[in-house]
Design a protein that fits this description.
This protein has helices at about 60-65, 110-115, 170-175; strands spanning about 10, 15, 20-25, 30, 50, 55-60, 120, 125-130, 135, 140, 160-165, 165-170. Among the domains are: about 20-65, Cysteine Rich Protein, CATH 2.10.110.10; about 135-175, Cysteine Rich Protein (Ribbon). It is about 15% helix and about 20% strand. The longest helix is centred in the middle third of the chain and has 9 residues, at about 110-115. It is built from three helices and twelve strands, in the order E-E-E-E-E-E-H-H-E-E-E-E-E-E-H. The chain is elongated, with a radius of gyration of 28 Å. Keywords: LIM domain, Metal-binding, Nucleus, Repeat, Zinc. It is found in: Nucleus. It holds the Pfam family LIM. It comes from Irena cyanogastra (Philippine fairy-bluebird).
Length: about 190
């Protein structure tokens, strides 16, 4: 029967995986949000995944479940580990563990919550999305708002300074907030005391 629903089915949640959200591992497709260790639920990527048949684990849980056991195979500085993995859902005395799935269903409210939690630009007050975000002074800024508050010059990480939540180029910062007096370029002549 043809697959009319779009892409392949996710190896974790069995829902359709479309190309934009697909991660492939061991010949199976997963949603990016479902590509989690079956034991500890840690997010995985191509460098941290360890696959065993149809199961995926982080390297730590995989080692606990399928790695060598016994004297001489301690984890760390030659010690014998007594960690059975029970707190991770690994019951090493029995067969394969049951995958732990989140108890709350995935729905549109997660998306709506993410949309509400978007950072705001301190200069214009509008939402700053990842594609246009520049960090400066510990705050997210739009690329177009990442300018000196005095002269309007576009800033980079090499010429930005911040004071009281506002950004300045180094020249404007030195003129307005830097040290003043002889030797600092602030005075050209010394007044004679009479």
């Amino acid at each position: 029967m043809p697959n009319w629903g779009g892409g392949a089915k996710c190896g974790a949640c069995e829902k359709t995986v479309y190309h934009a959200e697909e991660i492939q591992c061991n010949g199976r497709s997963f949603h990016k949000s479902c590509f989690l260790c079956m034991a500890c639920r840690k997010a995985l990527d191509s460098t941290t995944v360890a696959a065993h048949e149809s199961e995926i684990y982080c390297k730590t849980c995989y080692g606990r479940k399928y790695g060598p056991k016994g004297v001489g195979f301690g984890q760390g500085a030659g010690c014998l580990s007594t960690d059975t993995g029970d707190h991770l859902g690994l019951n090493l005395q029995q067969g394969s563990p049951k995958p732990v799935r989140p108890s709350t269903p995935t729905n549109a409210s997660k998306f709506a919550k993410k949309m509400v939690d978007v950072d705001k630009c301190p200069r214009c007050g509008k939402s700053v999305y990842a594609a246009e975000k520049i960090m400066g002074g510990g705050k997210p800024w739009h690329k177009t708002c990442f300018r000196c508050a005095i002269c309007g010059k576009s800033l980079e990480s090499t010429n930005v300074t911040d004071k009281d939540g506002e950004l300045y180029c180094k020249v404007c910062y030195a003129k307005n907030f830097g040290p003043k007096g002889i030797g600092f370029g602030g005075l050209t002549q010394v007044e004679k005391k009479e």
